[in-house]
Amino acid sequence: MRCRICGAPAAINMRQHKLALCRAHFVDWIPEQTERAIDHYKMADRGEKLLVAVSGGKDSLALWDVLHRLGYAADGVYIDLGIDEGIGYSGKSRALCESFAAARGLNLQVVSVPAVYGASIPDVAKKSMRGRRKPCSVCGLVKRHIMNRICREQGYAALATGHNLDDEAAVLLHNAMTWSGGYLVRQAPVLAATRPGLARKIKPFCRIYERETAAYALMQKIEYIYEECPYSEGSSTLYYKEILNRMEEDRPGAKLQFYLAFLQAKDQGLFAPGASGESDLHECAQCGQPTSAPGKCAFCRLWENATPPGLRPPSP
Amino acid sequence: MLRMDAQPLTTTLIHRGKRIEVRSGSTLRDAIRKAGFSPEAVLAAKDGELITDDRILLPGDEILLVAVISGG
Ligand code: SF4
Ligand SMILES: [Zn+2]
Ligand SMILES: [Zn+2]
What CATH number is associated with residue B52? Predict the structure, then answer.
């Protein structure tokens, strides 16, 4: 197979686009496509300050690389979750983010959950109802809270995450299986900052396949963490991604179409906006972030229950 | 008896450090499926460069499969 543009041997074939490209043309194609998505979904304007949530994985580092190449003023934030599990997961991924930023002269903020809040994600999860079986729900809550806070406090126009098409299609399939209206209405390439205290969130890679973000990272020689977080094993995301890939094998473009047709249907009013329940939000009595819980938000309650009094985080 | 230095008739796929021998002569895409992987969930590299999966496997080739799907 040959590159459609220059005829050199192709490095990647994207069956859903009937497009094969060589390395040189592919590493320019990805930023072009990303920029198109940013414009199409009105994610950000040039000159706006963006914050990229990096995990050390291929998607978020590839995204930071692309935004930087496109000329966006994009800083990074890494949240050290304190996950070790014998493979030094957090330590390794943090080091990869730090060396990525240093090599490009980019600005990375690191927030260490154990250092700031007094316990690692697995430890705090064990002590809470919501995370007794698996820390992922607690982990998501903590990450959302911290990113939101930094974005708002430091005046970033938006928080950019590395979610790719496979991530989005898997979440969509999961939520469609249970017709979770609240989640379906909120799933979008851009989450507007609907109220003070909530950061705007954007997903510039939402139309790019995971296979392509990985190819981009490899071709750009981005060192990323290849190991998975040990807690992701058996996750429903993996399960739905595998099912979607089986469809994709038989019908190239199936997962892209699934996602894009959903967005279109939503635009046409398939899901009633009221289903999200966002109108019930009010400010947390302790940290001020929007919450639907009465009194304090889930984040503040989590640390109250989990840490001995001496280690309680300072009230923000 | 005389021993001939015969070329191996297999190609090696390497996935997460595991070596899998497959018959040469088929396309890489077929070999990936026969080895139990989804062609949508891996990238293939030979001599450090990504290659497309329409390649015909030659005896003695070593092909690295990079898993691309993450579950976080
Ligand atoms: S797999 Fe779970 S615990 Fe690990 S980073 Fe993802 S959400 Fe957090
Ligand atoms: Zn080319
Ligand atoms: Zn709070």
Answer: 3.10.20.90
Which residues in chain A are contacts of B72 at CB distance < 8 A?
Answer: 55, 57, 228-229, 232, 235, 237
- Its sign, for the CA torsion A227, A230, A233, A237, is negative
Pocket of ligand 1 (CB under 6 A): A 121, 135-136, 139-140, 229, 231-232; B 72
CA distance B66 to chain A (A): 9
Across the range A97-115, mean pLDDT stands at 97
* Residue A135 Cα to ligand 1 middle (Å): 7
Mean pLDDT of chain B: 91
In a domain, A13, yes or no: no
3-state SS, residue B20? strand
B44 inside domain: yes
Q: Tell me if A61 sits within 8 A of A96, measured CB to CB.
A: yes
Of chain A residues 54-113, which have a CB less than 8 A from chain B?
Answer: 55, 57-59
Our separate counts of H helices and E strands in chain A read 12, 10
φ, ψ of residue A158 to 5 degrees: the values are -165, 155
Q: Is pLDDT of A251 > 80? A: yes
What CA–CA distance (Å, rounded) separates A93 from A60?
Answer: 12
Supply the pLDDT for residue A316.
45
Domain that holds residue A58: 27-227+235-304
Cβ neighbors of A261 (< 8 A, separation 6 or more) are none
The pTM score is 0.93
Q: For position A56, what pLDDT does the model report?
A: 97
CA distance A268 to chain B (A): 31
A189 by Cβ neighbours in 10 Å (0-12 / 13-18 / 19+) ranks as buried
Order of all β-strands in the sheet with B10-15: B18-23, B10-15, B62-67, B42-46, B49-51
Query: Which residue CA neighbors atom 3 of ligand 1 most closely?
Result: A136
